[in-house]
Amino acid sequence: MLKSSLIPVAILALMNCAPAQNVSDVAATAQDHAGVPVTLGTTHSIPSSVYGMQRRISVKLPIQYTKTESENFPVLYLIDGGPEQDFPHIAGMLQSIDINWTLEPIILVGVETVNRRYEVSPPSNDPRYAEAMGSKLGGSQELRDFIRKDVMPWVETNYRVSDDRMVMGESLAGLWVVETLLKEPDMFTKYAAVSPSLWWENMDVAKSSKDAFTSFPYGEQQLYLTMGNEGWNMQKGLDILIENLEQGAPDGLKWSYIDRRDLEDHGSIYHPAALDALRLFYPLANRTGQSAKAFYMFDDGISPPLSEMVKKDLKIECTNETARITTFAEVAKNHMEWNGLCVQMKLGAARTKGN
C-alpha cells in the first residue's frame, strides 16, 4: 500500500520541478503528433445512369499534368480502384514514376466496386457459384455499361485525355478484363489481366476466346497476361486462352504472357505484375550512361570521349520514336560505345510467350 501511494507523489514532485511549458508549444506538439495526410489523389462522387445511384471514382494526375495546358494523357482505368481497394498502391507506384521518369506519364482513374463479386463476374448457370461466393453474380455487363456511359464521359469532360485507354484488374477483376476484351475489344486499347479467374463457369470465358478471335474487329490493342502459382483450373483456363492466342490471335492484337508460377502466389503477384504491365505499355526512352559531370564514375575523374555514333545521336531529340531498341545486356558489353545514346530498354521480367 505504501509503495503504490509513493508513485504519484514522486511524479508530482518531478512535475513541480519541471519548467512551465507554453500553451502554444503544447498545441504545436499535439499538431505535430497528429501529422498531415499524404495525398495520393482525389475521390469524386459521380451520378450513375446505369446503377441509379452515386458512385465513387478516384483520380491521380501525373505531375506533368499541371506543367502544360495542351498535352493530353493516357488513362489507366483500374477495376477495384476504390480508396480502400487497389487505388492507393497503384497510385503510389505511379507517384514513383513522377520522380524517376521511367514511364510515360498517365492519369489513373480508380473505379470502385461496391458489390464486387456481382459487378465483376460474368453470368453463371451453376447455382454452386452463388453459394460459394455468398453473393448474387453476373453483373459484368452492367459494370462495362457504367464505365462506358458514366465514367469515361465524366473523365473526358474533366481532364485532358488521349485516345489511349488502359484497363487493369486482378483475380475476378482480371477475369472481367479478359471478358471485356472478347466482348467489347474497342472499349480499351490496352488490357492487363493479372491472375485472371479463368476457372469461372468451367473455363467458359477462356474457351469462348477461339470464336471471339475469328470475328474480332481490326484495331491496335495490347494484352498483358500473367499468373502466379494458383494452378488447377485457374492455370488451365489461362493455358486455353494462350493456346487460342498462339493459334489465332487477331491482326492488330499484340499480346504478352509472363509465367510467374515460380515467383509469386495469388496474394503477392499484383504489385510487381502491375508495374511490369505499365513498363510494357508505356516505356519511356532515355539517354543511357553517365553525364560528363559525374566525374566520380570514371577513372581519374575524366569522362571518356563520346563515340561518333553518339555525337550524331545527340543532335536528335530523344523520344520513343527516335530511340534505339536494345537490351541491358547489349549495353553492358560496351558502356563507352553506348554512353549518351537515346535508347529504349525493356524493364522488368522477360515475357514467356507472345507475339
Can you describe what's shown?
- The chain has two domains: 42-281, Rossmann fold, CATH 3.40.50; 286-354, no CATH class.
- 41% of the residues lie in helices and 19% in strands.
- The protein has helices spanning 2-17, 23-34, 87-100, 116-120, 127-133, 140-158, 172-183, 200-214, 232-248, 270-281, 308-313, 328-333, 335-338; strands spanning 42-48, 53-60, 73-79, 107-111, 161-170, 190-194, 221-227, 253-259, 286-287, 324-326, 342-345, 353-354.
- The strands form two sheets. Strands 1-2-4-3-5-6-7-8-12 form a nine-stranded mixed beta sheet, with helices on both faces. It has a three-stranded mixed beta sheet with strand order 9-11-10.
- Strand 1 (42-48) and strand 2 form a beta hairpin.
- The protein is globular, with a radius of gyration of 26 Å.
Range of strand content: 15-25%
CATH class of the largest domain: Alpha Beta
Shape: globular
* Second rung of CATH, namely the architecture of the largest domain: 3-Layer(aba) Sandwich
Beta strand count: 12
H/E order of the elements?
A: HHEEEHEHHHEHEHEHEHEHEHHEE
Give me a quick take on this structure.
This protein is α/β, with parallel strands linked by helices and 355 residues long.
Keywords:
2 domains, alpha/beta, Rossmann fold, 19% strand, 355 residues, 13 helices
